[in-house]
Amino acid sequence: MNVFKSRVVLAALACWLGAATAMAHDKDVERTLFIQVDDQGLVALWAVRGSGQRVELQGKMVDMNRDGKLSDGEKKLLAASMLQKGTAGITIDYAGLRLTQPAKFEAKLKETPPGAKFIEAAGMASYEARGADKDSLAVEITVQEGYGPVTVQVQALGERFLGWVNRAIVAPDRKGLTVPVQLKPEQTLKVVVVTGKTPEPKERKDAH
Length: 208
Hints:
Layout: H1 3-18, H2 20-24, E1 29-38, E2 41-50, H3 53-62, H4 72-86, E3 90-94, E4 97-98, E5 104-109, E6 119-128, E7 136-143, E8 150-156, E9 160-165, E10 181-183, E11 188-195
Parallel strand pairs: 1-8
Antiparallel strand pairs: 1-2, 2-6, 3-4, 3-7, 5-6, 7-11, 8-10, 9-11
Helix pairs in contact: 3-4
């Protein structure tokens, strides 16, 4: 990468960083978070869908050669930018500690149908195991004040299952939530993940 292109990329990244808060509560941005927990660690799967002028501007900013088409490298830049903004204002506490830098992070731009007026980025953040020796551990997801909502699903894998949740209904197999829950600003979803044998779903008795 030559010096001129490096400066262009740095300038674009600076603009993205300055606008992170704006996109996080933009009405044209939808974001979802799917968390998976087991004794090997925690994985956060993000999806951020954007439309409107701000997303169009992002696409133009990463189109370095101005040919109207995004190369694989430019798509990765756009996906990383969308995810950085789309995940802003959301905190995840895992086994009593705030998650910061993931052990591994991947981002990509998802394929959209021809003529679609939106673009969508997907990201996967992996975190090392915490509390694997404990019978129970908590995962808390919070949307900070001033940021937009996020739709959340939590899934327990392996020998883990959901023991308790504060603002949703646990699925009969206790491996996840019956439906994803939308968190609004200043709301927290707390899930206690426990280990052991998954309890058998209770059979409903028909009323006579």
